[in-house]
Write the structure tokens for this entry.
Amino acid sequence: MPRSGAPPARTPSLGEPQDTWVSVGRIGKPFGLKGEVVIRYYGDTPARFAPGSRVYVNTREGRVRATVATARQMPRKFVVSFEGRATIEAVEAWVGLDIAVAARDLPSLEEGRYYHFQMIGLQVYAADGRCLGVLQEILATGGNDVYCVRDGRREVLIPAIAGAIDSVDLAARRMVLKDLEGLIEP
């Protein structure tokens, strides 16, 4: 089934190719006074924030390597502390910043599942061969993701479900939709 996984489409590239660094979470507000922060993580790989894990914080000055010291999981977020940052003052500058990992360090996904960064930029075709545009954004709706395909004139919203997607070819950077009545207006 063509489901997409972490991370979301909005991945900061910091001038590098999109597939080099992948956003896996965003640092939220401090939690207490001992350097802990709330992290909203993207996707379904919560082990990314296990103690001892290495991640990179995308600061204005560049990427800073950080090692997770402690982590407590909550629904769709973690409370995390980082080694060497044991005070609220040490983490305040990171509030609102993205956490990234190298794409090569992401775990492999099962057949038919893709990371968002792999999907962004695919050419999307209707079942009849018409090019509908480029997959430019992925919306997380709670039930299933929705692919936003744009061609410069219009936007088409495609549910990221097996019933709508015929094939995905990452090597060819191509997605083909199934012929479903009402999915695409002529």
The chain has two domains: 3-111, 121-177. Confidence is low (pLDDT under 50) at residues 1-19. Residues 121-177 form a domain with the SH3 type barrels. fold (CATH 2.30.30.240).
